[in-house]
Amino acid sequence: MSPLTLGDQRDPALEHAAALVARAWRGFDEAREIETVPSSELLARLREELPESPGDVIADLDFAADVLDASLAQARPRYFAYIGSSGLEVGALADLLAHSYDINLALDARGATQLERQAIDWLAAFLGFPAATGSFTSGGTISNITALAAARERALPGSRSTGMLGRPAAMYCSAEAHYSVTRAAELLGIGRDNVRDIAIDSRRRMDPMDLARHIDSDIAAGITPIAVVATAGTTLTGAVDPIGAIADVCEPRGVWLHVDGAYGLPAAAAPTSAPLFAGLERADSLGVDAHKWMFVPKACSAVLVRDKANLAAVFSHNEDYIPHEDDELNAVDVTLEYSRPLRALKLWLALRVHGAQAFRTAIEANLAQARLLYGLAEAHPEFQTRDHEPQLSIVPIRHVLPGCHDIDRHNEYLCRAMQHDGRVYISPAVIDGRTWLRPCFTNFRTTSDDVRVALLVAAELGSTICSEH
Ligand SMILES: Cc1ncc(COP(=O)(O)O)c(C=O)c1O
User: Fold this and answer.
1) pTM
2) Boundary of a domain, candidates 304, 338, 353
3) pLDDT tens-digit map of 349-363
4) Do 344 and 395 lie in a common domain?
């Protein structure tokens, strides 16, 4: 037997791994008061040399679990930094299964390929994006680049072969679009300098009139518009660009509309927030990260397009080692990535096991938590809020303590103090030159009590550190 099987240790290792996973899940059920940080012994072991001879799988699994326990886990209910996730239990089980079979979706994988298609159809139905086709990708970045590559080929047919030939082209998004949009422009030969920053309104949403002005002046100057990227949930404040009004600008001008919904798009399925996403069905493509607000473990993003022909136009190709049968497209003829694991399984299994309604309910709960924090902070004499209620689940707040002279520095230090304290994990954000605490709620384990604790901890530590700077 190969030394690379677990042999007699297989069943004990599986049982032990299951016990470790169960322990982790129990540990995520409630917040812990103190975060475990890596001990010096653990750090020393993480500098050990490459092992040449076999170790003990049980002991090594324990060591791995210790390392993970001393890591920042987004699955914990009071992880409110950046845009977190949840490591949904059934999603983790699906990953174990998928990785055990190690199926590759670069080509037709029979059952798994059909399963991915069904998961794409379910996701499209969940979001309200009809007639979609698409694929699962490694993240919002790749979903955006995939869609924008198709947009470039539609706007400049043949550019995948010839390059840009010096033809000037431009893309359009609000100044608050995610950097992956700019990165796509860099990689696709459009150029970062040709990404137009469209003005935003008081709620930080793209201004469609300004968009129309930019596109029209580019067209008049002989510059080809490649695509407009509407952000459905900006990373900074959770603003949702007005998709319908943006589609009104794109359609008559024949410009591709991509919706970057990496963070926020699942909220299109929640009744409270659905109206914000009106017009989504008019987009040419969208990207959504199921590993953010659909709670499944990383990495699980999806790119959906209205017309499969657009993907084939930019990605189809011939390789001698991948023959086409009966002119059928292979998966790699419509995807940017080649080897692809079965990322769809975790979303598919989660939807089967929990049902779509459970996801809508969990998203609604996060939206309510955002409103709760906004209300509590607004009513608190030491906290400042934004002028408008949060559109989604990001709630920037500022600790404004009388006697504290440099409020920006104070909030920056407060964030650090909270991260060090360990009860609540929060990240800062700079909005219009001012530093804010920027909690974001995307975890089904978070409770209203966790939200209250976040504000209490911020007030408590804020008062303590103010005297120190
Ligand atoms: C709006 C938006 N787009 C794209 C991305 C990039 O997604 P990923 O990190 O999955 O590549 C993010 C990440 O936070 C995001 O918020």
Assistant:
1) 0.97
2) 353
3) 999 999 999 999 999
4) no
